[in-house]
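anyone seen this seq b4? input:
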Amino acid sequence: MMNSVKSMSDKSDKKVDRKDDKKGGVSDVGAWAMNIISSVGIIMANKQVMSAGGYNYRFATTLTAFHFTVTAAVGYISSSLGYSVSKHVPFRDLFLFSLVSNTSIVSMNLSLMLNSVGFYQIAKLSMIPTVCILEWILHNKTYTREVKLSVFVVMIGVGVCTVTDVNVNFKGFMSAVVAVISTSLQQIYIGALQKKHSCGSFELLSKTAPIQAASLLLIGPFVDHILIGEVLLNYTYTAGAIFFILLSCTLAVFCNVSQYLCIGRFSAVTFQVLGHMKTVCVLTLGWILFDSVLTGKNLMGMFMAVVGMITYSWAVEVAKAQAAKSATVKVKEAFREEESLLLRGDADLEYGKSDKE
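predicted toks r here
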């Protein structure tokens, strides 16, 4: 009974820590805005870097290694100047996280190469229910009917506006399965590590980025050679290519930081659901900047996705309110039970005194 009261106080302490973290850093809206803007920006920059009409730098895994190298450098400089605090995280946890994360990166690139764009989009959409199932298995987390319904609406909406041709083959299917599971685990792992070691988003990122950068720099050129059949050393770097690669790396720092912020404050499911706002933004910017065609099907899907995201936000807030209400009731019941036990003890003492008299 006392343990239940203590656990409730521990939860309140965590909420206070989270509020203090917000005061000293970025607000919730700011974190989401940073993630959406940086993610959309990096997609546009990478399109210029990797497309045949741009600089044809198709070494995606190596480019990701550059992203984490710059992120690690920013983390080291920030820690050296005293802008961030370095907390101890066991190397075993960092290594396991980096292994899962690198598996996610390589398998996602492999899935994109082996599958049609339509099936690749379906695989990305399946991450939402995969995260839900994994969180239920790993953390015994459950979801309300309203949350499940809103997630379904988001998936249908994004599917309608993005999925076109769907061609499936065995190798592509297996790479997509590995990509979905590893990416889902990576996002769950981010929140779990922050809670386990009581560290902030940037502190954890500063610890994981150097390991990911070193490992991806080693395997990246070989993976890219397998994927596209080209050798990294044969690429001729122009001033324009270097500029857009550096721009991509700069945006990646903000993208990585905001991802850790959002997952740390909310959940991997929320990150997946609201993260599809990026898909809507990319389609809209593609229409504005690159003369991409927006059909009635695209617009209907985008509208459904936005409605689903709004409904999801409402459903999560309702679930939080219900959880807070039930927690308050439990605390009151615990205090009442404790009070009744104390009164009973006092009565027993009084009864003992009267017997002696």
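The CA atoms of residues 50 and 56 lie 5 Å apart. The chain has a mean pLDDT of 81. kinda curious what u guys think
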